[in-house]
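I have been asked to look over a protein record a colleague put together. Alongside the sequence sits a line of tokens, each denoting a local backbone shape. I have pasted the whole thing underneath without changing anything:
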Amino acid sequence: MSEEVRARRLTGERALFMSRGLRIFDTIFDDGESPLKESRDIELQNCMFKWKYPLWYCRGVRVRDCQWFEMARAGVWYTEDMEVARAVIEAPKNFRRCRGLTLRDVDMPNAAETLWACRDVTLENVSAKGDYFAMNCEDVRVRNLRLVGNYSFDGAKNVTVEDSRLLSKDAFWNSENVTVRDSFISGEYLGWNGKNLTFENCTVESLQGMCYIENLTMRNCKLLNTALAFEYSTVEADIVGQVDSVINPTSGTIRADAIGELILEKDKVDPGKTRIVVRQ
């Protein structure tokens, strides 16, 4: 039978260090670093983390209805097999180099430098605000993410995003194998230096968006207030409505109802390698 901890306020460094099979309820972790470091098979419910590094090098963690306060920064690093549901995480720099991580119904109002270099990640109904979200992550599945913060998903690989809203300059830079469906993205310079980026049924606003991309696909997308698009990209794009301007795509096919300005500079690209189809 699992040991239980109930309704306690725990202080001091490594308060429950190397715990095994522990169920923790209604407990406050305060004024002491690394309270659960190196723990295994832990369940936490209705708990509060108020100090730094609470869950490092852990395995098999289930968290329900818990809160990370601002000073619980760098809260979860190097941890594997973790599920967090119905949480508010105020602390920045959370979730680094984790594997097998699920966040469900989580709010992160201060998510600066959060979710870095993690693998096998699932995000469902997550709200986050902060720059450099999800940098260098791999094998990520996202549904209903509401993100406000620049430079998101920089260097990420094997990512699927659905039903989400991103207000994010420089999103998906240097990324690879990314598919975004049924989502809204607003932010300059979307996707630069990416490889194998696909957008389906998306609405995008992006000054100089989708440039320097190898193998860009856009299906049934709207490009609102989007100028100087597709520079030096290989493109297969089917756009609903008008594109304000297109500049120097490398190759491929671009279909749109209208293109406000088409710039093809022969000294920079071979215009014959790109097919332009204007439906109107």
Notes: The mean pLDDT is 97. Residues 87 and 106 are 5 Å apart (CA to CA). DSSP finds no helices and 26 strands in the chain. Residues 3-278 form one domain.
